[in-house]
Amino acid sequence: MTSDDQILVSRVDEYAFAKVLGRGSFKVSGSLKEFGACVLENEKSELVLDLTDCIGMDSTFMGVVAGLSFRCKKQDTGKVVLVNLSEKTLKLISTLGLDHLVEYYMSDDLPGIYKQALEGGEAMDQIQPDGMSRDEQARMMLQSHETLAGISSENEERFKDVIAYLREEADGTA
User: Fold this and answer.
1) Complete domains list, the chain, with CATH
2) Which residues contact 24 (CB under 8 A, 6 or more apart)?
3) Percent of the chain scoring above 70 in pLDDT
4) Which residue, 7, 69, 144, 168, is the most exposed by fewest CB within 10 angstroms?
């Protein structure tokens, strides 16, 4: 992971904040998935992703976000909220249908509760790379793309070749 692609995290009451620095990419997706799963596992909580410094997101990252959102809805354990979106990040999530799965706010439309917590000066810790093996990463990428494909028929068509390749990769036949 380069120093440009990072996830910083903090907890404030029932809120868990994850700030994306650089790209939200497959490089940091495993760490976000693990952090989100821990946060949402046994408590009603909000996972708030701050995209102020996010310059882009790949499909694996967005699939992880979608998966966390589905998990929240299924288990009724909280919700995933994206904050400080730019026009570019809004377009990215809208293209894949995430705008229907998560609560989101543009940078100029941030509710006071999030603004106060984000501006509160809470120290954030960097999530260290998760050290996934190549096989584990291939399985995570496959799961992420299958999650995205399940959102819409457009996504199913968009990712069918990627899913086929990742299935082979995950099975060790690629």
Assistant:
1) 6-129 (3.30.750.24)
2) 32, 51, 54, 56, 57, 58, 61, 62, 65
3) 93
4) 168
